Amino acid sequence: MKNKRSAILLVFLSALLISSDQYKSYRSIPNTSFIPGEVINYKVHYGFVNAAEGKMVISDKLYEVNNRNCYKIDVYGKSIGMFDVFLRIRDNWGTYLDTASIIPHKAYRYIEEGKYRKKEIVNFYHFNKKVEVIDFDKKKEVWKPAKEFEVPTYAQDMVSGYYYLRTLDFDKLKENEVILLKAFFDDEVYDFKIRFIGREEVKTKIGTIRSIVLSPIMPENSLFDGENSIKVWISDDRNKVPIKVKAQMFVGAVEVDIQSYEKGDIK
Contact, 202 vs 243, CB < 8 A? Predict the structure, then answer.
């Protein structure tokens, strides 16, 4: 009887280990495009007016989340000039991105836009196909109980999805081919579709750069003017640096242009 109980206990413990994420096999995606320490600065223009500044930063050290090595990536945005007077923006979007599988294990948003405030943390459990969302209650100044949502395995957040695109081999894509991406945002799973337009040269502050041109396919909405209203340019080289974004809106065009780029360093 004792041996039987021991066998049952062994089976039970084995089942727990097998069901744990750290004992499952993650995908592996080659990445030669970005490394720790990368910093990219941008300026946002509305017509001829400078409206905001942005920065994309990969921490110069790695972090461990869910027993996995991760890049810590932050995207910052703030309004400047007259725009800062009428609508003060101080946003920070971030993700802990698995260095091998290029998926998020944890994401966060700290948003300040005028009087609007939002603090959110999202924990990803890919093999359980779920995320855990924790919001901050500004009035009570406490974190609310976590909410769970179902997601596909390897779902991205908005920041990690951007870096995942930088790992793709665009030489294998045909012009107008569509890239599919599953992403979790605002408590919902979205099927993002990005069209590979082709290649062209773009003049920037850091020089004329041959670039890959992408266009997220936008659903009908009251903000952007048409399905192909947004274009994104990334450098057509090993680093695939985001160079420029242009969004055609009903109220005019908004452009995001690179100002400086630091490749980073592996320590």
Answer: yes
Six-digit token pair at 256?
Answer: 């995001």
Q: Determine the average pLDDT of the residues in 250-260.
A: 86
Helices marked H in the chain: 2-19, 81-86, 158-165
- pLDDT of 23 over the 70 cut: no
Q: What stretch of H or E contains 178?
A: strand 178-185
Q: Which residues pair with 147 in a beta bridge?
A: 133
Beta carbons of 39 and 55 less than 8 angstroms apart: yes
- Beta carbons of 213 and 200 less than 8 angstroms apart: yes
Secondary structure element (H or E) that encloses residue 92, with its range: strand 90-98
Burial class of 250 by CB neighbour count within 10 A (0 to 12, 13 to 18, 19+) = exposed
User: Pairing relation of β-strands 104-113 and 90-98?
Assistant: antiparallel
Residue 1 has pLDDT above 90, yes or no: no
At 170 the three-state DSSP class reads: helix
Q: Which of 266, 195, 217 is nearest to 31 (CA)?
A: 266
Reported as a pLDDT band with limits 50, 70 and 90, residue 248 is: confident
Count of Cβ atoms closer than 10 Å to residue 262 Cβ: 12
Name the residue with tokens 């992403």: 183
Residue 257, both tokens: 């242009």
- Rounded to the nearest integer, the mean pLDDT of the chain is 89
